[in-house]
Amino acid sequence: MNTLLLGFLIVSLGIVLSWLGLRTVRRFVPVALLKAHHEVAGFIIGVLGAIYAVLLAFVVVALWNQYEDARSAVEREANQLGDLAHITRGFADQKERHRLTGMIGAYTGSAITDEWPAMAQGKASLRTQSALDQLWRVYLEIDPETYRDSTLYDQSVSTLRDLSDSRRLRLFASRNDLPILIQLLLWGGGVITISFTYFFGVESIRAQSLMTAGLTGIIAFNLFLVLALDNPFHGF
Questions:
Q1: pTM here?
Q2: pLDDT bucket at 120, cuts 50 / 70 / 90
Q3: Distances (CA, A) of 174 to 11, 61, 65, 76
Q4: Which residues are CB-neighbours of 48 under 8 A, at least 6 positions away?
Q5: Would the CA dihedral through 5, 179, 128, 156 be positive or negative?
Q6: How crowded is residue 226: how many other Cβ atoms within 10 Å of its Cβ?
Q7: Is there a contact between 60 and 218 (Cβ–Cβ < 8 Å)?
Q8: CA-closest candidate to residue 119, choices 5, 2, 1, 232
Q9: Max Cα distance, the chain (Å)
Q10: Which residues of 137-203 form beta strands (DSSP E)?
Q11: 3-state secondary structure (DSSP) of residue 190
Q12: 68: nearest Cα among 58, 76, 56
């Protein structure tokens, strides 16, 4: 699903549900009764809101750091693939050069078409792993005959090693899901925080609806942000 569409649906659905909840409470609970509890409700929602805000901010910052790590791993892998392709073109044996260049292209294509969708499920692609294994096998079979080829070969193996490390880091990043307890705490805390706004009796139901919708929209958008950052390869 498109990222913007998913965010719009989460925020919109949250606002609609919060509005329905407010209308239901106002229908069955008199405004005078709600006003009688303003002092206690105001104190509790202040403490609750502060705790929830700190928790939400902490999770967003932590997930943003993980997201940046995942992006760095992808960028490093792409740069290392480019370097490996350029270094390989320097080998003297034309047949060997074309063979290695083709295998590098095969690994790149498999990583894009096979492994990237698989990472949306937190999995790796066996086809991509096989392409990388074949690349390693061919490089390890090379026996450089000239000083130039030997230098290029050493650099190629070093770059291929770094490429393999970057791929593993990319796969690890696709499996770093937020613990279920923290997810329950975030979503449950958001529902409780919004529900506490129903304990205030504002004479104008429209004014209270706007205030509740604003709070709900901010919380829902932050929860969507958590969902998107927690799944950088899902391609929402």
A1: 0.77
A2: confident
A3: 25, 18, 14, 16
A4: 189, 192, 193, 196
A5: positive
A6: 21
A7: no
A8: 232
A9: 92
A10: none
A11: helix
A12: 76
Q: Can you read off the two tokens belonging to residue 185?
A: 């705490």
Tell me the residue type at 129: Q
- From CA 92, how far away is CA 124, in angstroms rounded? 35
Mean pLDDT of 3-9: 83
| Residue 88 tokens, joined | 């390989």
Contact at 8 Å (CB) between 91 and 97?
yes
What are 150-183's pLDDT values in tens digits?
999 999 999 999 999 999 999 988 887 788 999 9
Q: Is 86 helix (H, G, I), strand (E, B) or coil?
A: helix
For the chain, the helix, strand and coil percentages under 3-state DSSP, each to the nearest 5: 85, 0, 15
For 125, the token pair is 């692609």
Q: Are 73 and 170 in contact (CB under 8 A)?
A: yes
Look at residue 141 and tell me whether its pLDDT is greater than 90: no
In this structure, what token pair is assigned to residue 216? Answer: 């709900």
Give the model confidence (pLDDT) of 85-118 as tens digits: 999 988 888 888 888 999 999 999 999 999 988 9
Count how many residues are written for the chain.
236
Q: Which pLDDT band holds residue 77 (cuts at 50, 70, 90)?
A: very high
With contact defined as beta carbons under 8 Å apart, do 164 and 132 qualify? yes
The token pair at 83 is 């370097």
User: Please, what is the end-to-end C-alpha distance for the chain in angstroms?
Assistant: 5
